Amino acid sequence: MNIVAADWLPYALPLKRPWQTSRGQLLERRGKLLRLRNDHGLTGWGDCAPLPEFGIDEPAARAFAEETAHLDLAAQSANLPLHAWLSGEPNVASLAVNSNLGAISELSKAALQASLDAGFQVLKIKVGLAAPAEEIARLRQLATSLPAPIKLRLDANAAWSLPEARQYLDTCRSLPIEGLEEPLRHPVPEELAQLQAGLPFPLALDESCHLLTPAFFRHPPLRRLVLKPARHGGLLKSMEIALRARAAGLECIVTSSLESSCGLLACAQLAAAIAPDAVHGLGTAEWLAADTGWTAPISGGRLYLPESNGLGFVIAEDWAKAQDPD
Predict the structure, then answer these.
(1) Domains (ranges, CATH) in the chain?
(2) CA 105 to CA 136: how far, in whole Å?
(3) Which of 317, 227, 315, 310 is nearest to 274 (CA)?
(4) Spatial distance between the Cα atoms of 307 and 99, rounded to a whole number of angstroms
(5) 135: which DSSP letter?
(6) Counting Cβ atoms within 10 Å, is residue 118 exposed (0-12), middle (13-18) or buried (19+)?
């Protein structure tokens, strides 16, 4: 199998509403699609969308795109969906995903009700953006309005000192919390272990990839890892981390980096390969006011994977014409 053509297709996709990051608000998502064609007439796709706020620099994003496009071609050639090619396991039809409700200070009753009506069982909310006492009061109020099966997934984006995190988490013990990501401003394994001890829900590492050393996996200080494939430089590297995590007794969930539908599909294929029964952070397509291609549908709180072989990305006809006017 030889590559006979390759090109990059840049995109700038507006968001329906601002996405809050640790560095401020994101109003659009910029990136570029990689299109590879081989001598068997197959086309492979990858998505390069750097985002420093998520710890994704240009080299890592480019490596992710290049590897994804090559793996897409390999899986198509093997007549397998990409996740089945990666795992060697049977096809996965769908994945449970959380909704993304943004900052707790901006959460509206309408947005909350829409997530409940859509069948999501886990609602993700960003915390650590306002005074702890204010957010805790809102969390308690929110918890009283949730039906019993529904849980909250919190993301603090490295907001707190150890005393602040301890106070916040002590309050959360009695609330329907499913997990909390990145509690510490300057995370070290010893302090993370102190916070995790006795908590009824897992703490998770996301941005703090520098902690993923051999010593970390020998004695994990918390219970969950969040994998963003673009940040790790590709699907295969993410698979390696997931296997090490599984051997150490850690949960893994996969989240997108707000890429276009091409990158989101790559994340979904990884999630199906490493943790088909987990609740993943892949419900991000609805934040985009426009997209580059076919978007995996979400129904009943589940994302449905494409039935085709390989990655399953299909470029939008009108968008493709804008990129290839001839």
Answers:
(1) 3-80 (3.30.390.10), 94-304 (3.20.20.120)
(2) 11
(3) 227
(4) 23
(5) H
(6) middle
Torsion angle in degrees (nearest 10) through CA of 236, 242, 246, 248: 110
Distance between alpha carbon 158 and the CA centroid of its chain, in Å? 17
End-to-end CA gap in the chain: 27
Q: Which residues pair with 251 in a beta bridge?
A: 224
Neighbours of 63 (CB within 10 A): 17
Give 210-233 pLDDT, tens digit per residue: 999 999 999 999 999 999 999 998
Per-residue model confidence as pLDDT tens digits over 261-312 = 999 999 999 999 999 999 999 999 999 999 999 999 999 999 999 999 999 9
> Is the pTM above the cut of 0.85?
yes
Taken in order 217, 53, 82, 178, the sign of the CA dihedral is positive
Q: How far is CA 252 from the centre of its chain?
A: 11
Structure tokens at 199: 């908590």
Gap between the Cα atoms of 85 and 91, Å rounded: 9
What is the layout of strands, in order, in the sheet containing 122-126? 99-103, 122-126, 151-155, 177-181, 203-205, 224-227, 251-254
Among 53, 61, 75, smallest CA distance to 10 is for 61
Residues in the chain: 326
Phi-psi region of 148 (alpha: psi -120 to 50; beta: other; left: phi over 0): alpha
What amino acid is encoded at 4 in this protein? V
315: which 2 tokens? 């470029």
